[in-house]
Write a structure and sequence with these properties.
The complex is a heterodimer. By secondary structure, chain A is of the alpha+beta class. Chain A has 14 helices and 14 strands. Chain B is an alpha/beta fold. Classes of the chains: A alpha+beta, B alpha/beta. Chains A and B meet through helix 1 and helix 11 of A and helix 2 and helix 3 of B.
């Protein structure tokens, strides 16, 4: 009987029921899309921000100490070279053996040397960096990794191209230095720093920073010119991290100040400080320093984006609840005689409320299912439009959306149920 | 033995006294008509007798049970068990068939029984129209469905508000014949009406004026 009454009521009010269903579908689709994106956005935003450079810089401990004490870098006077001022190139692959190895997205070593660079217009003293442009690396864990500057300096504006992977002499020259030397893509330049070397300009870049005065050559070439075989000055690392919190900040100051439980939590969370700590554990004589501006920006942007999405979800559901409230209240007012009749033949107010709630729930449930499916689609559109990749469907979202649909239905029906409870059959049946 | 007793009941809406110190008794199996001009308090009295409203003052006893102090939910329970209501506007649920409209009263009373509901429709001569929707029925037929619904739970008291007010002469005759048969079977009937011909079928006519009983006419003889 109750099913017949529900079906009859739903079919009789097709227009209103459809509006309720559509309203809920809209709210649920937005909630589904936002929740899916919100749960997947951490990795996506981190990936996006990785394009703007490294968030960890690994340097030799002695260099870090000088930098910390005097606030200046010990710009490599390779003529005073001492092994403790450098890191070993053959230890770089160990980066992929730490606990958070999979969060290490890209890395590249640099060997900084001061050299005389000669071109068609003359010779100038410049900073020359030996680096990996596009490196294929087999790690001790058996993993293969492709990394290098190509991935970490993707925002550079380049005339020409990055050197090919196996090009032993391809170089990238900053626009300012290229102008001083009068070189362009394809020109030969010579580099002298102890030994003499030759490079061919593959590309001229505009970085918008001090790097525009520098020259980047393949790491083996820089090591040969400087005589620093197998050594590097620093390693820039790009890692996916979790936003910092109080625990991470305390650990960054002194990991030994943490309790055992806190230490375990910190070590097993991808905070930038715990990743830095783990890098120091595997690279000899190294100090891993977070590039705080990048790390903090990542956390802040992630938190703000997630907050924005949460607000959008709440707002869309609140709008749905308001619209459903109006529609159900209007329906109750329109059907007041029918409701009065049910009470007159013996239905209690709670039984009639249940009937109205059940009608609304059927409509919103249909809307919720349609909205969830549409929301999955919206999430993919957002993923491809904003992040250029798909958004993974999270298993937590369907029960969460179902719970939200239920809550929105109940909240939206409450004013109507209050109105219903105030209806007196004696009045509505006589049209008063 | 009285099935219903109203003792000094008053109903006040703001400054309006819809009922003013009215006392009335209705015997078991009696057919009573309540007449009066508009605004005389007929509908107010019907609402109080039908457990749809509570008087401002006085007491109402239905089968000896005091109703005036009961909560709305308790009044609903009494109404469900003891009162069958018939309305001038029929108040059928438009998307349910005649049979289902009768079964709604069963559903909220105890449990549905299609055979019994069909029997109730048969008593009012509508068994063949059981599967029709209200809009497919004439006014007289709708009123007969309304009567079947009122009878389905074997109420102690049948309360009819202008039951022939919206009917033509032929359908009025059919409805009155049903009432005569119900009365013959021992049902207690209270009819609120404007129509003297309908009222004259009753054993006793109570005339209301300005919320008071102005006259009582006995037609037993």
């Amino acid at each position: 009987m109750i099913c017949r009454m529900l079906m009859g009521a739903l079919l009789r009010q097709r227009g209103r029921v459809l509006t309720i269903t559509l309203t809920m579908a809209l709210g649920a689709s937005l909630a589904t899309a936002m929740l899916n994106v919100m749960m997947d956005i951490g990795d996506k935003v981190n990936q996006e921000l990785k394009a703007y450079g490294a968030n960890l810089s690994v340097v030799p401990k002695s260099v870090s100490l000088i930098s910390d004490l005097y606030g200046a870098s010990d710009d490599g006077a390779q003529e005073n070279a001492a092994p403790e001022k450098y890191l070993a190139e053959d230890e770089i692959a160990k980066l992929k053996t730490i606990f958070w190895a999979f969060n290490i997205v890209d890395f590249t070593p640099y060997l900084q040397i001061s050299a005389k660079v000669s071109g068609p217009s003359g010779t100038v003293e410049a900073q020359v960096w030996g680096a990996w442009f596009d490196k294929h690396l087999d790690t001790p864990t058996g993993e293969s990794v492709d990394t290098g500057m190509v991935r970490m300096k993707s925002w550079w504006d380049i005339e020409g191209a990055w050197p090919a992977r196996d090009d032993p002499s391809g170089a990238m020259i900053g626009a300012s230095l290229a102008s001083k030397l009068g070189v362009k893509q394809g020109d030969r330049i010579s580099v002298a720093a102890g030994h003499l070397g030759e490079a061919v300009v593959s590309g001229v870049f505009h970085s918008g920073g001090s790097e525009d005065d520098d020259l980047f050559v393949p790491l083996p070439l820089a090591q040969e010119i400087s005589g620093l075989r197998g050594l590097v000055s620093k390693i820039d690392v790009s890692a996916l991290t979790t936003p910092e919190n109080d625990l991470a900040r305390r650990a960054a100051q002194d990991p030994n100040s943490l309790s055992r439980h806190e230490w375990d939590t910190w070590y097993c969370t991808a905070y930038i400080s715990s990743i830095a700590y783990q890098i120091e554990e595997v690279i000899s004589n190294a100090r891993a320093k977070p590039v705080l501006q990048v790390a903090e920006s990542e956390g802040a942007i992630l938190q703000k984006t997630q907050l924005l999405m949460l607000l959008l979800t709440v707002l869309s559901l609140a709008c749905s609840a308001l619209a459903i409230s109006n529609l159900v209240t209007a329906s109750v007012m329109e059907r007041s005689a029918e409701i009065g009749l049910l009470e007159a033949v013996g239905a209690s107010a709670s039984e009639v409320s249940f009937l109205v709630l059940a009608e609304t729930m059927i409509a919103t449930l249909a809307g919720g299912v349609a909205g969830y499916l549409a929301g999955r689609g919206f999430a993919q559109i957002i993923g491809h439009t904003v992040f250029g990749s798909a958004i993974a469907a999270k298993g937590l979202v369907p029960p969460l959306v179902a719970l939200l649909v239920f809550a929105v239905t109940v909240a939206g029906s409450l004013p109507a149920i209050r109105l219903l409870a105030s209806l007196r059959p004696a009045e509505v049946l006589h049209g008063r | 033995m009285n099935i219903l007793e109203l003792k000094n009941i008053s109903m006040i809406y703001g400054s309006v006294r819809a009922l003013d110190d009215v006392s009335l008794s209705v015997g078991q199996g009696e057919w009573l008509a309540i007449m009066g001009p508009s605004g005389s308090g007929k509908t107010t009295m019907m609402n109080i007798i039908g457990c749809m409203d509570r008087p401002t003052a006085g007491s109402v006893l239905l089968e000896g049970e005091e109703l005036s102090g009961l909560s709305p939910s308790s009044l609903t329970a009494i109404r469900r068990e003891k009162v069958g209501l018939i309305f001038q506007q029929f108040h059928l649920i438009s998307y349910l068939t005649a049979l289902e409209n009768v079964m709604v009263a069963q559903y909220y009373h105890s449990m549905i029984d299609e055979r019994e509901a069909l029997g109730a429709l048969e008593r009012v001569g509508l068994k063949e129209r059981a599967k029709h929707l209200p809009r497919q029925l004439s006014g007289g037929e709708q009123q007969r469905v309304c009567i079947a619904r009122a009878l389905i739970n074997y109420p102690r008291l049948i309360l009819a508000d202008e039951p022939t007010g919206n009917l033509d002469e032929a359908n009025e005759g059919i409805v009155m014949e049903i009432f005569r048969r119900l009365h013959g079977e021992g049902s207690t009937i209270i009819v609120v009406t404007h129509d003297p011909e309908v009222a004259e079928e009753a054993q006793r006519i109570v005339f209301l004026e300005h919320g008071r009983i102005a006259n009582v006419v006995r037609r037993d003889a």
